[in-house]
Amino acid sequence: MNRLAEELAARIAGRVLPNEPLKEHTTWRIGGPADLLVEPASREDLKMILRFVREKGLPFTVIGNGSNLLVSDTGIRGVVVKIGERMGAISVAGRSITAGAGAKLGRVAAVAQEAGLGGLEFTVGIPATIGGAVTMNAGANGSMIGDLVETVTVVDYAGQEKVFNRAELAFGYRYSRLQQLKAIVVEVVLGLTPDDPEAIRRRSQEYLQKRRRTQPLEYPSAGSVFKNPPGDAAGRLIELAGAKGLRIGDAMVSEKHANFIVNLGAAKASDVLLLIERVRGMVRAKFGITLELEVKILGDSGAG
Ligand SMILES: Cc1cc2nc3c(=O)[nH]c(=O)nc-3n(C[C@H](O)[C@H](O)[C@H](O)COP(=O)(O)OP(=O)(O)OC[C@H]3O[C@@H](n4cnc5c(N)ncnc54)[C@H](O)[C@@H]3O)c2cc1C
Asked: Where, by residue number, does the polypeptide cross the bilayer (predicted)?
């Protein structure tokens, strides 16, 4: 892999890190090594990386800020592309804000607030890139990012750029067609609403305080582990099933928010997977409902 790393590094401006521990790139602080972690500095870099993996026949995975990922303890084979801040330029024109996919959501919201553009307040505290947020259709407090999307530009695995509008992306609850396309989000244009920056700031603060009250932000996590079943809340079902505080190794169902599994220090992916199955079993036994995962499992864990 080191030879491949050198070969790829010579072709792009971005970083190439062989045998890179992915726990350094996930908010759960869990995950074994990527054979090659690559951080492109531009679309041209990205296209070059795609050509490289095609030439060499390497497996290929894309991540953003790793805030919705459970990466297996044995890591991920082949090339993992991290779309980060080097592909995160932000600009404002009228009511629209254009952000490179690697821009952190918090930074996009801050630029919008400064420009007197409201609508992103609900995203405060979601530790995502804008590319990951549109892919997952991140949402909170009854709002979701998909509703703000004007267009999304992707580079497909063949290296072609394509632009999609909101309707084409079929946004739903924690879903967008981007999850099915073999493509990487490189740019997002959002349509926002002119508003007083002070009013935007106040609303953002209220959302943030609510998060701090209700979520265990003092521990590494990936936010909600399970999707809410229609008309109900996964956290409520988990709590009533008696799973709050359940612990395997250093992975624990949070006492503060039952849909969070927190890493108390040295949790392994295998601990989290066992805990997920235990919680699912308890909820199924009590309510006859099988909870679906919101987090994405990457690497060769064999679980789903
Ligand atoms: C403390 C905390 C609070 C959270 N609160 C919320 C919340 O309120 N609402 C909510 O919806 N989520 C929440 N989350 C979960 C998470 O932040 C979101 O799912 C977020 O959208 C993931 O973005 P990311 O950049 O971290 O993507 P990652 O976790 O890195 O990736 C998620 C998925 O998107 C894909 N992906 C990422 N970037 C790209 C790209 N550029 N192109 C193509 N595919 C890509 C990946 O392959 C993967 O399948 C929370 C997480 C934490 C840790």
From this structure: none
At which of 82, 105, 132 does a domain end? 82
Using alpha carbons, select from 243, 298, 230 the residue that is nearest to residue 276: 243
ipTM above 0.90, yes or no: yes
pLDDT tens string 58-89: 999 999 999 999 999 999 999 999 999 999 99
CA-nearest residue for atom 53, ligand 1, is: 222
Query: Do 52 and 122 fall within a single domain?
Result: no
121 is catalytic: no
Which residues have CB under 6 Å of ligand 1? 27, 62-69, 83, 101, 126-129, 131-133, 135-136, 138-140, 178, 184-185, 217, 221-223, 296
Q: How many CB atoms lie within 10 A of CB 161?
A: 13
Specify if 204 maps to a domain. Answer: yes
Q: Which of 224, 239, 254, 280 is catalytic?
A: 224
Residue 257 resides in a domain: yes
